[in-house]
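User: Please fill in residues for this 158-position structure.
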């Protein structure tokens, strides 16, 4: 007598596997969003450190004006001082795309020792994210900057 699986048994196994995939697939998508958000937070912290070096090298100390802030994916060097070998770009894009999710706002000339820097987060449940636009009043008003989630991560001068 030959032993084999019946059609019903095969269909039950396929249904169980399909159910597991349906449950697990959205979790994998969330992991990718969280990883990109973590990269954005790390990028802003790196910018923050570079901005401190920049301020310390200025006489008198000051942060760069909005127009002087470097574009993504460039070597940020000013007066012989290299602040970043390659400024970070948006994790969803690359250096040739024009995806803008980081925004730097200087309060110069009124206050040269104050700035805000924002990143748009994908994960709406991020514990470090804050809902805008009150948090980021400048972000969505600038050409090319959009935040579909409405959740921002913000760094300021230390």
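Assistant: Residues filled in for all 158 positions:
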């Amino acid at each position: 007598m030959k032993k084999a699986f019946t059609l019903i048994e095969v269909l039950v196994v396929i249904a169980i596997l399909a159910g597991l995939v349906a449950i697990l697939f959205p979790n994998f998508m969330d992991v990718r969003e969280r990883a990109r958000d973590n990269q954005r937070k790390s990028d802003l912290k790196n910018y923050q450190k570079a901005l401190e070096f920049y301020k310390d090298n200025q006489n008198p100390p000051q942060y760069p004006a909005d127009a002087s802030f470097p574009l993504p994916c460039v070597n940020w060097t000013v007066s012989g001082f290299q602040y970043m070998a390659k400024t970070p770009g948006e994790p969803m894009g690359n250096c040739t795309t024009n995806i803008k999710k980081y925004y730097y706002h200087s309060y110069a000339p009124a206050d040269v020792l104050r700035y805000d820097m924002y990143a748009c987060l994908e994960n709406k449940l991020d514990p470090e994210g804050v809902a805008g636009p009150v948090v980021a009043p400048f972000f969505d008003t600038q050409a090319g900057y959009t935040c579909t989630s409405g959740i921002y991560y913000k760094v300021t001068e230390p």
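For context: The chain has a mean pLDDT of 85.
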